[in-house]
Amino acid sequence: xxxxxxxxxxxxxxxxxxxxxxxxxxxxxxxxxxxxxxxxxxxxxxxxxxxxxxxxxxxxxxxxxxxxxxxxxxxxxxxxxxxxxxxxxxxxxxxxxxxxxxxxxxxxxxxxxxxxxxxxxxxxxxxxxxxxxxxxxxxxxxxxxxxxxxxxxxxxxxxxxxxxxxxxxxxxxxxxxxxxxxxxxxxxxxxxxxxxxxxxxxxxxxxxxxxxxxxxxxxxxxxxxxxxxxxxxxxxxxxxxxxxxxxxxxxxxxxxxxxxxxxxxxxxxxxxxxxxxxxxxxxxxxxxxxxxxxxxxxxxxxxxxxxxxxxxxxxxxxxxxxxxxxxxxxxxxxxxxxxxxxxxxxxxxxxxxxxxxxxxxxxxxxxxxxxxxxxxxxxxxxxxxxxxxxxxxxxxxxxxxxxxxxxxxxxxxxxxxxxx
Length: 420
What we know:
Blueprint: E1 4-12, H1 19-28, E2 34-35, E3 48-49, H2 75-78, H3 83-98, H4 103-106, E4 111-116, H5 121-134, H6 143-147, H7 151-159, E5 166-169, H8 175-188, E6 194-201, H9 205-208, E7 242-250, H10 251-257, E8 263-272, H11 285-298, E9 307-309, H12 316-330, E10 338-340, H13 343-346, H14 353-367, E11 387-388, E12 399-406, E13 410-418
Parallel strand pairs: 4-5, 4-6, 9-10, 9-12, 10-11
Antiparallel strand pairs: 1-7, 1-8, 2-3, 6-7, 8-13, 12-13
């Protein structure tokens, strides 16, 4: 089968707005959580979030938005964007430059784009309020394309003149991993030569706070410990947003262009729990099946995996479920891969998570480190026998695996390998 490689990355995240700063944060276990100003009112029980830095997108008028130095977006483009589309647009620029792609490489029939986001509840709510109070014709003409869940691919495909496959994925927190998996399939099957994979979320009040009603968000008031996957004291996840873009290319394209890839995408597996609309199967049966499928389809033995970037969001049920799945896959063979959840640093990016953490895996495999699982004071007994690392290891994983799980019990596991 044709081989597939990651050749470019772009990051707008709570722990950095480029690959260099993200790598440094991962190595040093520097988190991006803070007491989020919009949450600091008595009626809101949640206090901590992990916003991206340097962007001010609080206004409902995009012309009022401000960006970090060096970023400029034309007015006619901004009219169809929401905050998460801005983040994705910036990450796309980075990824194109990082992969050393010219305009002809980006815009052709063999280059496509798959994306994932939850849309922009913030702008959708604003538009619907105007419609009900002021009338249908007082809504922005581009309000729909800026706010619904396809806003990322609508904008990026149009603005970057993408002519190959394009699609949006909606499987909650598994969305951008599904995008990556199906992008891999298109490359392996010869349908495309290059795919952009994008995950993005607003990460503001309207995108995060509804999860409080599910009792899913941490109520901690300490940013340094609010997100603590695998710890006995974990009480929910911390929300974040941003945008991440990965460039996937076939081996033929890598050789033709003479670029050095980050890593190889070996393959992937998926499954469904068939259990509950919101809660993971307590024994992790679905995630166990996804990992089994990923390992079997790639011909990878469990003992070959050196590092696992776990989904672990810092929720009591979810982390325990994943721990049981990991034990079931790796303990019988005696394998002890290093395991960590980088959500302790970034917070949980919802549909962004899979793309973001796949990008982290690519950095780890190329640059030779395994980020630790931060903020663990007392390890959950459910993790007994698992090699959950608490500090960053300066070792290069030859094989890494990323797990994600989403609402409805959607599970995806992706295997990455050192490029040779």
